[in-house]
Amino acid sequence: MDEEPKVIPVLEEELVTGRREVKTGSVRVQKRVDQQVKRVESALLHDDVEVRRVAVNKVVAEAPKIRQEGETIIVPVMQEELVITKRLVLKEELHVVHRRTKERVSQDITLERERAIVERLDAQGRVITSPDKTGAVSDDTMATEAQRKSRRRSVDA
């Protein structure tokens, strides 16, 4: 008979160690202040200082030093003042001499004059009227022409 081989497991135990916190109790801390009144006597010193301003307004050559007279300390307070002296000084004189002279001068000058030539045209652009031979047009003619042109523009528009 053929028997199948049997498998027998071999086991081994291992030890695993560890730790964990376990609360087994707690502590409460309180703070209380007890007061007790005791009388204490002591000597204290304090100083009073009086400052008086005494106007002197005296010109001095150099600054006085701090000095003491009895229980009073004197501290000089200085101020510089600018002293300006004003005086009249003649610096120079201006001597002005007036002379008049006459001189003849000749010079060529170009003068310009404008003139307008106004011509009236018909619908085909032909000249209807022409100015006089001098090319001058009287103010009345120019005004009349301007009025006609203005009327013509308003009709065209």
Describe the protein.
This protein is largely without helices or strands and 157 residues long. It has a two-stranded antiparallel sheet. The chain is 11% helix and 7% strand. The radius of gyration is 63 Å and the shape is flat. The chain has a domain at 120-156. The longest helix has 18 residues, at 139-156.
Sheet with the most strands? 2 strands, antiparallel
Query: Shape, please?
Result: flat
How is the largest sheet built, in terms of strand order? 1-2
Give the topology string: H per helix, E per strand: EEEEH
Give the structural class.
little secondary structure
Q: What is the count of DSSP helices, taking H or I runs of 4+ residues?
A: 1
Can you give the mean pLDDT? 79
Number of strands: 4
* Span of the ends, CA to CA: 134 Å
- Give the helix level as a range of percent: 10-25%
In percent, how much strand structure appears in the residues? Answer: 5-15%
C-alpha-based Rg, rounded: 63 Å
Low-confidence stretches: 134-142
Strand and helix layout:
Elements: E1 67-69, E2 72-74, E3 120-121, E4 127-129, H1 139-156
Antiparallel strand pairs: 1-2, 3-4
Structure described in brief:
The chain has one helix at 139-156, and strands at residues 67-69, 72-74, 120-121, 127-129. With 157 residues, it is low in regular secondary structure.
Task: Considering the chains and any ligands shown, give keywords for the structure.
157 residues, two-stranded antiparallel ribbon, flat, 1 helix, little secondary structure
